[in-house]
Amino acid sequence: MVGGGPAGAATAIALAQLGHRPLVLEAAAGPSWKVGECLPPSAAPVLDRLGLTRRLPDAGLPSYGNRSVWGATDAVERDFLFGTHGVGWRLDRARFEQELAATASDAGVDWRWGSRLVGCSRSRSQGWDLRVVGDDGPTVHRTDVVVDASGRAARVARLLGVRRVRYDHLVGALIYARTREVSEVRGPVAGVDSSTLVEAVSDGWWYSLSLPGDRLVVGFMTDADLLASTGARRPDGLRALLEEAPVTRTRVLAAGVDLSREQVVLRPAHTARLTSVAGPDWLAVGDAAIAFDPLASYGIAAALGEGYHAAESIAALLAGRADALSDHARLVDRTLARYLIMCRDRYARERRWPEAEFWRRRSVRSGPAQRAV
Predict the structure, then answer these.
(1) What's the CA gap between 58 and 91, in Å, rounded?
(2) Residues in Cβ contact with 218 at an 8 Å cutoff, skipping those fewer than 6 apart
(3) Which residues are 173's β-sheet partners?
(4) What phi-psi label fits residue 106: left (phi over 0), alpha (psi between -120 and 50 degrees) or beta?
(5) For the chain, which terminal residue's Cβ has fewer other Cβ atoms within 10 angstroms, N or C?
(6) Sorted alphabetically, which InterPro entries does this protein's record hold (predicted)?
(7) 274 in helix, strand or coil?
(8) What is the CA radius of gyration of the chain?
(9) What are the tens digits of pLDDT across the range 56-66?
(10) What are phi and psi of 263, to 5 degrees?
(11) Which residue, among 82, 91, 225, 167, has the nearest Cα to 347 in the 3D structure?
């Protein structure tokens, strides 16, 4: 596995459960902050299969629902407590990454922090030679199958010459702020709004969520070429934009956060896919295979599930079924098809600004554009 995020960790854990001893090469020196803070209740089954459920209380706080201001001025609430999978989770991503690595190591995975892939080639005998740079200098690891779990960078796929197709130019202007909340009481009576809030405005949409450690993530999502005109690159610009989002503004003010005093972090949020997600003795999982618009809430849950099923395909290949990785490719294709339909339908529900460039690009008539990168 090249990459130790949710997709790579899930693939490795599932392979270990099937009797193999995977190797994970993670470029970071240790658990670190990453974008992606919420696990929906739908992730519960795969979390159970991977043995991660018991670790979640150490990595996050429960989320009891979602709120959205989309297509109308009134907020619509969805309560998780009435669903079949229980609550969602608001994650401390660095802690969650730590728990993923610990679960994998306990399962028998050879986990290597600080190991950056610099080359990938077919071995003279069988499998792959992975050239890696780490604290001990350059090394070569030989493996039967290589899994690209390197996120949007798709390092393995790019080294193999696979192209990436981009569907849009969505970016997030994010702020992670300390709040006035000091209570760590867990549950809906804690006085902390645990819901994920999404609110549409004329030039994009807002996302916000309270996180462990008395923090609040607030993000404005728009297209990259619209950042300058919206002012979203600057903290004071974000603060001015917030005036158009009254529900999000109320949450930010209640948390005691002044956006103009915080640091803005820009992160890609566009939909993208590889032109090929599997080939002879290799496959891609997670954001390396498909990167989702965060509006879909696919992110981490999809990465975990995809990794689990990828492990089954790899195990079948190693057992002698030559076409086993095609199962993974078909699963990714089905996931992409469902996602594109769902994402199109969600954007189509917002019709208040039909002439605004952001929404015009996402109208049903326009459809998604594709560009190879």
Answers:
(1) 9
(2) 174, 175, 177, 206, 207, 208, 238, 248, 252, 257, 259
(3) 220, 266
(4) alpha
(5) C
(6) FAD-bd (IPR002938), FAD/NAD-bd_sf (IPR036188), Flavin-dep_Halogenase_NPB (IPR050816)
(7) strand
(8) 21
(9) 999 999 999 99
(10) -95, 135
(11) 167
**CA-to-CA distance for 105 and 90, rounded, in angstroms?**
24
**Closest residue by Cα to residue 5 from 357, 307, 365:** 307
pLDDT at 221: 98
In the chain, where the domains are located: 6-60+89-167+271-338, 170-268
The CA distances from residue 152 to 158, 237, 268, 270, 327, in Å, are: 11, 28, 9, 10, 22
Task: State the alpha helices, DSSP H only, in 108-201.
Answer: 155-159
3-class DSSP state of 47: helix
Residues 6+ apart with CB under 8 A from 64: 79, 80, 81, 87, 88, 188, 194, 195
In the chain, which residues have pLDDT < 70? 83, 181-192, 364-373
CATH number of 170-268: 3.30.9.100
Residue 86's pLDDT is 84
**What CA–CA distance (Å, rounded) separates 111 from 101?**
7
pLDDT digits (tens, 9 = 90+) for 164-192: 999 999 999 999 999 875 443 344 334 46
The three-state secondary structure class of 247 is: helix
Predicted pLDDT of residue 369? 53
Q: Which CATH architecture does the domain made up of 6-60+89-167+271-338 adopt? A: 3-Layer(bba) Sandwich (3.50)
Q: Which two structure tokens, joined as six digits, stand for 333? A: 């294709």
How far apart CA 254 and CA 232 sit, in angstroms, is: 22
**Contact by Cβ (8 Å): 112, 22:** no
Which stretch of DSSP H or E encloses residue 197? Answer: strand 196-201
CA dihedral 224, 230, 231, 233 (to 10 degrees): -20
